[in-house]
Design brief:
The chain has 885 residues and is mainly alpha-helical. The protein contains 42 helices and ten strands. The chain has a five-stranded parallel β-sheet with strand order 2-3-4-1-5, sandwiched between helices. Strands 8-10-9 form a three-stranded antiparallel β-sheet, with helices on both faces. Strand 3, helix 6 and strand 4 form a beta-alpha-beta unit. The longest helix has 28 residues.
Length: 885
Amino acid sequence: MPEMTYSRPQSGLVPAALTHESLLIHLFRLLRGAYGSVMDEEMGGIVEEVTGYLGDSVSVHLVGLRQSGRSRVARLVADRLRERGMAVVVVSGVAALRDHPLAVLALAGVNIPSGAAASSISGAVSALSKLLTPNRSVLVIDDADDLDSVSSGAVAAAHARQPFPVLSVTRMAGRGQPTSRALTAGFQPGVRVTLDPLTFDQLHRVVHRMLPGPVDSATVARIATLSGGLPGLVRAIVDTGRRAETIVEEHTVWRARGDLWNGRLAQAVEPLLVDLTDDELDALTRLALTGTVTAPEAQHVVADQLFARLDQLGLLQVAQTPTGPLVGVFPPLVAEYLRRTGAAMSRLDAMGGVAAEASGSWGALTPRLTLTSSRAAILNMRIVEHWRVEVANARASWRAAPSAATAVPLLSALNAASAEASEFAAVLDGTVLDDNDPRASVRLVIWRAALQALVADDIDGACELLAKQQVRSPAFASQLRATQVGLRLLVGPMPDLELLAPAGPEEDPLGAEALATMRVAVLNAQGRTIDALAALPSYAPTYPYYVENNRISVGLARVLHGDFDDGVEWALRAMADAEAKLSLGEIHAHAYVAALGLTFAGRLDDLDALLGPVLTLRGTRLLSEHYQIGLLGLAALAASWRGRLDQGWSLSVQAETTGRRAGPFPGMLHGVTPTVSDPDRDWEQIGARLWRAVDERLAKGYVTAGVAVALTAVEIAPDSERAAAVVECARRAQSPFLAALGEYIAATAAGDPDALKECFADLWSRGARLHAIKAAVTCALVLRASGDIPASVRQAEQAWGRLAELDHGCHGLFFRLGDAVGLSTREREIAVMLGDGMTVPAIASVLSLSARTVENYLFSGCRKLGVEGRDDLVRAVATWAALGA
């Protein structure tokens, strides 16, 4: 698996002479414009879907929460239909005009005759019928919930007289909607489309367009959690954060500082609550004040009928977890609003707290076997709430008696709560050592060493501290040695194997567990997967930290050995157990193992489904930050293979700004990555940087990580001498899969097309199909470089054909080939226009060129690609020779 790196894409410049005040104004204007354009892009799929239905005379009922972007979709659909030459009448329901019959139709330009009510209605129906001719007209009704009953009746009568397609836009089922439901039900044939929240990928792109430059991964996660993915709330949170300076740019990276809640956000939240009755608002307030709860707990807070109603309105999330359903207010920003405003507290007082009993029980809830975005949002809140309480309780105990025995639980809770390093240091400095509890004292020293190695970047000092403690506490020497191994493994270089010598008979029993756990971790990093898999069944750790590391090692050994499906299944089961414990560090670790297996197997759709929710979980654990870095690295890879180069770059930057160092396994690498679209790229410099990373990985003994980086390095800048060193390490490793990757590196460095074809067949048979496609692409490049253009074209077309057997959308794998053919921007543009059905004269007219010049461009494009006709040219630039989505 290659380690991809990303060079930062070019962005617009801000005039240098701007004052601080005018700079802020300029940036906010850019933010508003960026939000509009990027939201239009993200909604393009549903806009096309709805437009397609309406174009086929099928009515659409679009349903979504306020702030979901439903009105924006309606406007975009109307614009798209007008571009296609259709007449569009747009009617907007207005709550304040419900008592004024036909007013909204008049405002929409419908000619309403004055006079008696009956004649006005009849005239409105006739006017609508004239405006909406069959097959060429569409009626768009935004906020159809707020349409008065007379206008609804006029629309229904006009539709009955002369059917026309209708786009009706409504909220989730709310108070006073019988009229709108009856109206939309009459538009047949028709479909109902629900506007879902933004996916993580979509939200990630929106945030990065609104905040010019890289954004800290924890900040993206916090915005995703609070907003629930509702576009209007994303915009409000980012805009308010910028203005209130709770989202600031630090060292070129945007980060959230402090609390993202601000009273100004009430204006964005309150529209979500306008349809609630007093009882419904009371019930929602109870749940908000209670926090994320299990279903039985929620039954003591609200009655069944109210729960069902709030769920119907889209204001609750009910997610199935390994321990049963969890319930939370949606979006979480609504819960923050209800908790923070005085109205919520006064309601709580009036209700006598949140412990009121409610009778009844809910029906069966649909189980969700995998982590979803909605479930991740609930899990996020529950993790934060749980560890906030745990830290508070542990801190109270420690303050009452600041000993090692009370400090160790507090340090563990701080780690689980993603506390800042300064909080760890304060506890360590304020703890009084007590020789009467040697076990606690040793664990306190272990925490001190971890902080010194991972935060102060002083691995030698940390190991010296642990060695001195061995002399003072010989019964715990093996645990202390195992800690040295663990820290060396994270920081590098690979630890001295003497540290893994068996524990003595006089030592604490946990010493043997610690050594066995670290031994397997070292074996995995070295690629000695046979030894790792053989060692795993031989011990059964009992201490929770070692138990969990053992489970991580099992999945990782299977994946690195090439048993992708088994490793993924194991990791996902372990991840579900970690969710039940609300352990974010363990969730990240097992998610990384599963993501690595899915990456190797080329299951990018499954990878996206896993990474999206996981990356919204916020927080970084001191002892497991390398897994989070690995997740971001793998997400960057997936984005690049999808052809989303800018997104890949931003994810790579997030990985680099997360934590303090890379880790010992594939994907855990800080660096920058080239994009094909960057005109200033320097392949020689990029290749040199990647090879230095390979040298650094191998020098530290990280064989699996070194092989992974070398895959990309050899593709960009073949280096026979350096490749030979990597290949030797891969061949010495016990993993058949790593050995196969080594053969691919050797074949690429040698420029051997026959060997590359063998690599393709071998990798494909092993289930590493994505890397097999990479081998086929490299083979086509080698053939082109050797001058055998026809063979190169055949190889490229065969590789593209095999790509169809993978998940969709992996065209980024071919960008190297598209770049190598050397088509100019104009040649590509003309070929694409030809593929869109335009004639040569039409292309010449649009581009202000002569027809002869267009013909010359087409001839030049065919020559460079090595194809014979225009059909081949068009097919090539749309498939294997493409440089964009």
